[in-house]
């Protein structure tokens, strides 16, 4: 069995539809009699709700429904805690509508349904809410302040969780180490900002007793299960579909956003389809955010630059709630050791509530913070000892013969953090060469003589990907020979229609264009989790592979029976099933599919041809032999990984800084990337490009600025700066392929990787460029103004 | 939306207007509220949902359409402002349902889209840009694309697609001239 399509740069089969403007995003769905919803949001970050008067809104012509907390009955329940953890002693999740108190500016207070969205927004203005403002916790510093305000009155010290992990003897090693340094690193909030906001369309069909919801989500199956329980419907009578989704990046893997409950509820109450579409202003105030952490780290190293021990104590801003448990800080803690042989490590974090939008994973999910800390350490060791920063990294790398490498920590999925495979030195060598690292120093000297400030930065990372619990897939050959695949994960631009088809095409000997893939429809595939944690290709891809292998074996068995040959002598290629060494004894895959279903009534050309063939003698037993496992050329398979698989990479860049303006220009950017075996290099490179761009945004442009009242000050695209094409340099992507031994495809996740090392690399490059000023970057994200400020502070000391 | 304003006097109900507009070569007449945005008119009245709405404040470029050949943001216009004018949307770009416009083809060949949400806006902007700059260099391309945001691709492949599309358009132009 060759692997012709796996690894090939196949053009995406989903493109023609999307290019013609014929995609179906949630807001493109229009149903007869549909009405439109808008959400009234709290203008205060923390306030008591004394009274809500919605009578004027209810009286407005064209308004069909106004919901406040008191209208929700038994649905006024906090959303489920998605990932409980023993260290999370004070979990808090959100009500669908705020009852007595609001905990962040943007929290949903009322839900209006009207004839159109314009009218619904008119009605919002008529709702009178009497708020009593309460003291606000707007930052991590305020959250930990003694005797300061509380986000939740019953959560002392605003502490949601506290977790300590320890490997080896960090205190003992540190006490006798030749060099010990201590630093503070600060990361501020950013946001995923998919170009499409969130959205829900819900329809209740009383004839079928069926609730159908189209949602811009990354996890329709858990939402289906949740809605069924909430509305007391059988699970198979709730269908949740993620149609075309305009980007997710983690922010759409939530359960529940209030609107995901309120929109179906309104559809059930009104008996009419209801649409709610989040606009950008709302997205800034109500879609989950991430990245706020403060690290106090102490680290010890010897004269050779070997890192001996790390003691990292950090605060994590979870916003007003902990919908996603403490996944993000756990990932930070487990990512920090990175590609290095760290044997003595103390990690302690405290998760704190603030009066801000809740936090859940956003592309990178706690990893950029960890990589920032560790790579800053590596650069500092180099500086202190006068060593080359790449050499310091090399000396500390885990060697290829040391895998599997047990980091000694418990990972986010509750399993051990064990690296399955990797070749970090190979990646760094590739980076060094592609970057022109050796030649750069001369160039830097020349530039500096001309008064220009050039710098080189590198950052290495290891990324846990492809975690469980499981995914599944069904693969079925239809009677026209085309292959139908369905799986529970969703697609937000990752090209699953193409890459999953490539996996199947190799097993069944068909063209990927003849493989039709359905993702994210709870009625098409019943079981599954969702697309997050860089896991779709690894976990769902493996399930699809296993199902396709089963179908192939079944096709061989059926053809062997028809040809009176041995299954070992049957091959599949070019859409045909034939006897090896006798290719004239062949059927199309469609004919085998028909033969697999022993009906008397078959239609179409394939069926006619099959009937005409005198294939076999009198039938010896039942029409559908038991060992066939049922009719049809189809199979279902599930894949549950033993644990996550760890991808890795090394990025490097050469930047030029203008110390008069604080502007930074990338002169060169190289990403060396190892995600195991590559299914489609076009797709993987695209993922890396996009990740790096998002990382550059997170390093130098995108910072959500809140004032002391917890008000977001830059909640528009005019003020929160997503990078445009002018900020993103040409990117060079290099692949190193270290297959994962954990899954049948040898793949590792690729979705988040690009974003993870960028902030660290950027800091490294700035330090290098501005070495004459003695600057050391300890915070992210920066922006030109902040960089100037730091330079001025430096010049004044 | 302006949900945070203090509740005040009841909103004024909107006047209506009889709009006549040509979209993708078809003449449409519709009675619409004067406050309706052009983007909403295209999407919800004409069901031309290829024009996407990403920010509703004129920054992201997802809603870009051609108004009398020029690229405009349909979220920053009221539908009544295009009375008696001609619009082209993404649905009207390719000649038929089977073929792709050279810009669309270049996007597929260069993997210049991922989630596809910003793509129609980019393609419409590029259409206007290449009309003005048939043989652009990389710097001009980057300037020309700076008014559209993409969150998936990192732009690199979009820049490559523009180069390829410019090449396709120039060769079809010279073929036409030879004929």
CATH class of the largest domain in chain A: Alpha Beta
| Overall geometric form of chain B | globular
| CATH architecture level-2 label of the largest domain in chain B | Roll
What oligomeric state is this?
heterodimer
Name the strands of the widest sheet of chain A in spatial order.
Answer: 3-5-1-12-9-10-11
Q: How many β-strand stretches of chain B? A: 5
Q: Globular, elongated, flat, extended or rod-shaped: what is the shape of chain A? A: globular
Question: In terms of per-residue confidence, which ranges of chain A show pLDDT below 50 for 5 or more consecutive residues?
Answer: none
Total domain count of chain B: 2
Number of helices of chain A: 20
Task: Give me the count of strands of chain A.
Answer: 29
Name the structural class of chain A: alpha+beta
Largest sheet of chain B: 5 strands, mixed
Integer-rounded radius of gyration of chain B: 18 Å
Percent helix of chain B, as a range, is 25-40%
Which pair of chains has the greatest number of interface residues, and how are they split between the two chains? A-B, 74 and 68 residues
CATH domain fold name of the largest domain in chain A: Aldehyde Oxidoreductase, domain 4
Overall description:
The complex is a heterodimer of chains A (797) and B (179). With 797 residues, chain A is an alpha+beta fold. Chain A folds into 3 domains: 31-134 and 198-245 and 252-286, Aldehyde Oxidoreductase, domain 3 (Alpha-Beta Complex); 367-467 and 643-785, Aldehyde oxidase/xanthine dehydrogenase, molybdopterin binding domain (Aldehyde Oxidoreductase, domain 4, 2-Layer Sandwich); 468-639, 2-Layer Sandwich (Aldehyde Oxidoreductase, domain 4). Chain A is built from 20 helices and 29 strands. In chain A, strands 3-5-1-12-9-10-11 form a 7-stranded mixed sheet, with helices on both faces. In chain A, strands 7-15-14-13-8-29 form a 6-stranded mixed sheet. Chain A has a 4-stranded mixed sheet with strand order 18-26-27-28, with helices on both faces. Chain A starts with 14 loop residues before the first helix and ends with a helix. Chain B is α+β, with helices and mostly antiparallel strands and 179 residues long. Chain B has 2 domains: 16-92, Beta-grasp domain (Ubiquitin-like (UB roll)); 102-178, DNA polymerase, domain 1. Chain B is 34% helix and 15% strand. Chain B has helices at 38-45, 102-109, 119-132, 138-145, 156-178; strands at residues 16-23, 26-33, 64-67, 70-73, 86-88. The longest helix of chain B is centred in the C-terminal third of the chain and has 23 residues, at 156-178. Chains A and B meet through helix 1, strand 1, helix 3, helix 8 and helix 18 of A and helix 1, helix 2, helix 3, helix 4 and helix 5 of B.
